[in-house]
What does this fold into?
Amino acid sequence: MSSLFAPIGFVGFGPDSLRGDSESPPIGHVVSSSRAGLRHGLRAECPRLPGVYGMLDARGNLIYVGKAKVLRGRLLSYFLKGSRQEKSGRIIDETRAIVWEAGVSEFGALIRELELIRRWKPRFNIQGLPSRERQVWVCLGRRPAPYLYVSREPTGQEMICYGPVRGMRQARWAARQLNDLFQLRDCPRSQPMRFADQKELFPIVHSAGCLRYELRTCLGPCAALTTRATYARHVRALRAFLEGRDETILRRLEASMTEAAAQLAFERAALIRNKILPLRWLRERLGWVDAARSRHSFVYAPVCAGKPLWYLIRRGRVCSIVPAPSDAITGQEAAVAIRRVFHDERNWPQHVPRDLVDHVLLVAAWFRRYPSELQRTLSAEQALQACGREGRVHPARSSA
It folds into this structure.
């Protein structure tokens, strides 16, 4: 092992965050300056197991990370003549060492691959990809008159956060359109708010801080032109739209656009279309993450090569991996992990952290591609009952 890693400087992929390991899991390796040598080493050493693998160049830099259902077959496929893609050929041309970390399931390898790509940022995993737009959150907040705005990072003071979505400019435009349509203010935070039902010792006639009230795109909470109850009703209507519960505003705009086009008022129809597009864009993108989160909260027990594992998935995120309960000890350990993941709300923020969006969408894509795998899932309650049976104790007696 030392003869491999001393010259190339690679010591392992690093800890597996989901398994809670403090040290890097063991890896296998082959080293050669020729393709034939690498191929010969793989045939002799690489196991027929699922897992992740990496390619290292002559300087010991990790240039590519991949996952495989069967490591040996996947890695040997790089050396088949006529079947190698251009990118694969360029990777092999620069490869002087191949390392692998055997796992127990293809799903686990998929999640581990994403973690390693995010950690190491190998050149061939990100080279040639289009530049990714910044992820942002669409937030509703800033009392006493909440409105919709875009933030790069929620502060925890918001009423609710939606997303994240990619595209700062599109998200800001959508928020502006929604504030107009639902008549919510979007003025600076320094602007004082005065509601009509707010008592004043000496009544004063206040003027609106901008023209939006005159344009009927704001209720005018800065000039006591609306009550708290009315403003709150508009906020609730906006929330219903963002959460996909009420699309009345979209249907109304589409009907207006169709009517304008029928009357040959094409300029008015175009203006209405320009209001519809950002709303559709935002609702569609919020729907991707919302659907992924809402449909995927369970314990997943895939077919494993070796000791079976449970993947604890909450809101589309693999939160922990534990051995499937087989006795009193593993039953109680699994019960503790299940309660921590599914019953402790303090550990799970309302919004999706930026670095977990791809993770959530990856989990959703797995079950969309293999819908039969949903038959291998258990609800948290079913899993706790299984822990109690295997541990020969009632789940309620397990330590939380």
